[in-house]
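Annex B. Sample input.
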Amino acid sequence: MKRKVVSILLMAIMLVGVMDAGSTSTRAQGFPSLGFTLYQGSVTVAGQPAEDGLEIRAKVIGTSYETRVVTTSGGRYVALQVGPVSDGNGNQVEFTIENQVVATNTDAYLLPNCSVVACPTSRVFDLNFSTTPLAPTPVPSAPARYSGFVSAGGSVPSDSTSFGVRIGPTYEVTGGTLSGGDFSIIVDPQDTALTGEPIEFFLGGVKASQTVPYEPGGIVSNVILTFSALPTPTPVPTLVPTATPDPEPTATPLPTSTPQPTRTPTPVPTSTPAPTATPTPTAIPANQTPVPTSTPVVVVDVDEDGGGVVRDEQYKRLQQEDRGMCNRMGGPASAGQIGLLLAPVALALWVGVRRRTRANLVD
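Annex B, continued. Sample output.
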């Protein structure tokens, strides 16, 4: 009995010693440091609250330290852990969005003194980004082929039932083929970022209980998919045409007489007077000399008294005609006619005077 008690005491002393040694070792190694700062605040991009799901990260300038990523939600970010960075005390903290755009404002990193302040510390710091980050360009992936067997409610679905897949919120495709319960479909989201994401299968709008991870370029067969019973389509009732009663004959309206248009009198064309024909002078041939009009020659004789007597019968006849003309006119002769009548007389007197002058000169 005494030996048992001594053995228990020795075992207890040894256990205490082991525990004390472990405690000393733990104190020597130290607990993980809590000297970091948790950032939070609002996020604005180009003057507008940031969309949800944008990645925010920070790094301490002059060091290789970079924080883990947090995402925006409701235009804010929370719990962005910065530190501890022993060699970055006083350096600038730079914030980026989607690892593309740097915030217009920076903060100074201060290593918390956990012996004075409670660690970790918390800091509210709003972030402003001048431009919107570009959407990441997806890296094309190779298409994959999946095939296997489907059942809906324990039975084989009709081959005409629609069959498709969906990966995440962005990729969805239909057009898989069904043949006696066997299915085959090509999955080609052309985005390597979807690698490993679960593929959801849909039969007639009903989701399968199983999912398969997306493997770009893979050929996966023997996939067994089970679906709940598909909804029975509601038959469309056939409409029986209702007999339409024959319409009453409609009286044919009498034709309405169309008023005759008022006839507009046709204007009578006005006759245009014919222009008076102008006599065309007769052209004289170049080789023909015009015949001059004969001028009547007045023959005057001188009587004994020195007076002149007209003996030309033609001239007398012309004088008689002129007198007759004056009589026919019924008025006094014109000055021209009188001049013609007096011209021979004046000529005879002039001849008489000349002769008398010559006779006197001879005497």
